[in-house]
Amino acid sequence: MPSIFNIFIDSNTKLLTMDNFVFHNPVKVLFGKGETAKLSRNIPKDSKILLTYGGGSIKKNGVYDQVMAALEGYDITEFSGIEPNPHYETLMKAVEIIKEKSIDFILAVGGGSVIDGSKFVAAAVHFDGEPWDILAKAARVTKAVPLGAVLTLPATGSEMNGNSVVTKWETKEKLAFGSPMVMPQFSVLDPETIYSLPIKQVSNGIADAFIHVLEQYLTYPVNAPIQDRFAEGIMQTLVEEGPKVLANQKDYDAAANFMWAATMALNGLIAAGVPQDWATHMIGHELTAFHGIDHGQTLAIVMPAMMQYKRDVKGDKIVQFAQRVWNINEDSRDATIDAAIAKTKEFFETIGLKTSLSEVEVGTETIDKIEKRFEGRGFNIGENADITPADIKGILELCS
């Protein structure tokens, strides 16, 4: 019997050949309980370290003590206060400290925001010009301070890639950059750090990782079955293991599987040779910039509307997603797509996230501001570069 995907795939669709690609990921991963103790094996003894972290939770959950014990005898300067959406203004203070003290290694201890912020700091130290241009003008990074990471919150995948997202608080802009120069030399992933996380952060992390996969998967069919199957496996793992972590954060096996799935979601592997979207992220960034809404929460609101608005263009992959991830078997292509969107929305709600703008008190004024901001940038977004500012407004209106 032919599969649902074969029955409902658009007969006019030509399956494209996988693109040429270069895949190189040099990040060393130290995974498992107690791996923080191995930090001294991975940082030269004569290093002058800037230890970066956020609001101080690492001092409450024991991670700070583990790090300091592992780095006894090192020259360490601490820099705390990196925000959940790291502020450019804060990060530039760290840049000045590195220059003043001739620091030659950064150790980021925290979640994706701390690691993202530390990557920007690493790039900005040696940048010749206005550092904001790295984000605003895609200025090339040619040199960076070496860095490592101790991950405390699975979500962004920043521990195993060269991506970073930074907010300029003064102008309410949230922008991204990527460079191989800021890939961590190593990252410590200890699942026990999940045990003490606020449940809201776990929910956001599950959604963030899941939608990272969708951004690289829900595009158009390409003959890349390995990437598709890896992507589907990561999503199935998040669907299975995420709720287990929410039910019992001290379930080590579930925490480990969730942490590794979040890392694999954005380390470049499933992106190799296939089209990528990232429109949901770009729109979500604006909701965070204007209102401070959690990143994962913004994605859970935007993604179902994106699927609905672009269902004709993304339909073939939505059908595949429906069958392979959600085990949906409806009688028609439209019904299958409807069910997949509904199931995805239900999943986000099940893990405790909101799925509409009204629930986070965002109205038409913000939608208009976001449309104008994209108009000012002068380019379309999406895997086909066919999502205009007017389309972005339409997508956000579906979220309402």
Characterization of the model:
This protein has 400 residues and is α/β, with parallel strands linked by helices. It folds into two domains: 4-19 and 199-399, Up-down Bundle (Dehydroquinate synthase-like, alpha domain), CATH 1.20.1090.10; 34-189, 3-Layer(aba) Sandwich (Rossmann fold). It contains 15 helices and ten strands. The longest helix is centred in the middle third of the chain and has 23 residues, at 225-247. The chain is globular, with a radius of gyration of 21 Å.
List the defining traits of the structure above.
Rossmann fold, alpha/beta, globular, 10 strands, 2 domains, 6-stranded parallel β-sheet, two-stranded parallel ribbon, disordered N terminus, 400 residues, Dehydroquinate synthase-like, alpha domain
Main sheet summary: 6 strands, parallel
Low-confidence stretches: 1-11
What best-fitting shape do the alpha-carbon axes yield? Answer: globular
Structural class: alpha/beta
Span between N and C termini? 41 Å
**Percent of residues in helices:** 40-55%
Give the integer mean of the pLDDT values: 95
Give the second-level CATH assignment, the architecture of the largest domain: Up-down Bundle
User: By CATH's scheme, which homologous superfamily of the largest domain applies?
Assistant: Dehydroquinate synthase-like - alpha domain
In angstroms, what is the radius of gyration?
21 Å
- The run of helices and strands is HEEEHHEHEHHEEEEHEHHHHHHHH
Number of discrete domains: 2
Beta content comes to: 5-15%
Individual helix count: 15
What is the count of β-strands?
10
The CATH class of the largest domain is identified as: Mainly Alpha
**What's the CATH topology label of the largest domain?**
Dehydroquinate synthase-like, alpha domain
Describe the strand arrangement of the main beta sheet, using strand numbers.
2-9-6-5-3-4
